[in-house]
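Need residues for this backbone.
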């Protein structure tokens, strides 16, 4: 009896690919830190150690911070290329939806920045996420970097969703599978794997 009989293929692929894409993202940070000679350690949903703002060369900070998002965008691009060739590829659709999900923290950043601006204030928060750290290290406006990345992801989502027949159902299944996959990674799979690391 097939698993997809009880769990639709899009959800099953998202369940598998969400933790895989999270791991690839973090492994990119780990590899960048190690390549530059920093002591880094892989955690469940992050990498500790490595260069830090104000204590390390800015280029080192920018390279390690941008390594994860760069891999995530490459994974998203692979998914979109396969969707162009085969719109019915459930794995590619699921990957296109779940891979950039962790970048959605940028939406929260943009929201609070816009809220402060509309109130006539300056946003004084000290966020700690990849795109913010990379932009700060490079001396580029974090809002601009996050806005461009968010627009790219929105366009990718629009393209991926437009290729599907059952648009809302497939998005819902991918999100449910992705959330379940991330929960499994954080509670069971990740701790087990990292315990052997």
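Answer:
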């Amino acid at each position: 009896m097939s698993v997809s009989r009880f769990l639709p293929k899009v959800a099953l692929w998202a369940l598998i690919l969400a933790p895989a894409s999270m791991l690839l993202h973090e492994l990119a940070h780990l590899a960048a830190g190690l390549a530059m000679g920093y002591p880094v350690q892989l955690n469940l949903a992050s990498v500790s150690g490595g260069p830090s703002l104000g204590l390390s060369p800015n280029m080192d900070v920018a390279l390690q911070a941008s390594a994860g998002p760069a891999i995530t965008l490459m994974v998203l691009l692979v998914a979109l290329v396969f969707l162009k060739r085969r719109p019915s590829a459930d794995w590619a659709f699921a990957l296109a939806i779940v891979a950039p999900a962790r970048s959605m923290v940028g939406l929260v950043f943009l929201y609070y920045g816009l809220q402060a601006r509309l109130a006539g204030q300056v946003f004084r928060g000290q966020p700690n996420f990849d795109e913010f750290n990379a932009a700060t290290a490079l001396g580029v406006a974090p809002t601009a970097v996050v806005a461009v990345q968010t627009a790219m992801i929105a366009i990718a989502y629009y393209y991926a969703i437009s290729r599907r027949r059952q648009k809302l159902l497939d998005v819902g299944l991918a999100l449910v599978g992705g959330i379940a996959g991330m929960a499994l990674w954080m509670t069971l799979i990740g701790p087990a794997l990292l315990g052997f690391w």
